[in-house]
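thread from #wetlab-drylab

HS: before we spend reagent money on co-crystallization trials with adenine, can we at least see a predicted complex? here's what I'd submit
DV: go for it
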Amino acid sequence: MKIDVISIFPEYLAALELSLIGKARTSGLLDLTVHNLRDWTTDKHRTVDDTPAGGGAGMVMRADVWGAALDDVLGAAADADADEGANGDVEAGATEEGPVLLIPTPTGRVFDQRMAEELAGEDHLVFACGRYEGIDARVAEKFSERVRVVEFSIGDYVLNGGEVAALVAIEAIGRLSPGVVGNPESLIEESHGAAGLLEYPVYTRPTSWRGADIPDVLLSGDHARITRWRRRKALARTAKRRPDMLIDRAEPLTMEDKLAL
Ligand code: ADE
């Protein structure tokens, strides 16, 4: 998978050199490049923003600078797809192939595990990280004629820019790419996975710690009992912390689940 990130603070993305994502880059599983938006400015001060049309506080990022950057980074692949769209084969912007442009913004669609799973199947993702009051709205509008554009939010709070949101999305998507997480089994039972429940509590040695013991069932070796216990714990935890996840479920609760609640 190829990922490009464009930001005025490329150093923010240094965390992507660490841990599993860092290893995936070194081994060639992830081809990740971070670009400095200011490289596409043409003035002496390397200006990327200006005052908002219509007035108001703050600054807005300029469409012309973002346009030049995205033309280069999205590249020829996007142009080829746009031509296909013009033939009427695919709906404009909703191309099946080619890069996906991701714009982190508090006004976007909320990013979740489903979105991460879907984006993990793409070949090329381009993250456009805005700062200040955001990017001139014409950028998303114009590029959606050429590529699929997804404006996404990582939650109902406002950050100073899109970099942290891009980090979150890249980690969530990257770890689902084949080979990035060494043991793919660890992706099966996790929270927000197929079961649609928060994960059960986990324990390891020491067996007894500060007067708290690991539940006996986990040391019993009885796998059927352990599975039932974990399911009950996952249900109880979800009911308490995220009751919304028990409503409108893709996989309905069984009678045994309901009795456990
Ligand atoms: N930029 C600022 N706040 C954000 C948020 N909550 N999600 C994504 N991008 C953002």
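DV: The pocket of adenine is lined by residues 104-106, 153-155, 157-159, 162, 165 (CB under 6 Å).
HS: ok that's useful, forwarding to the group
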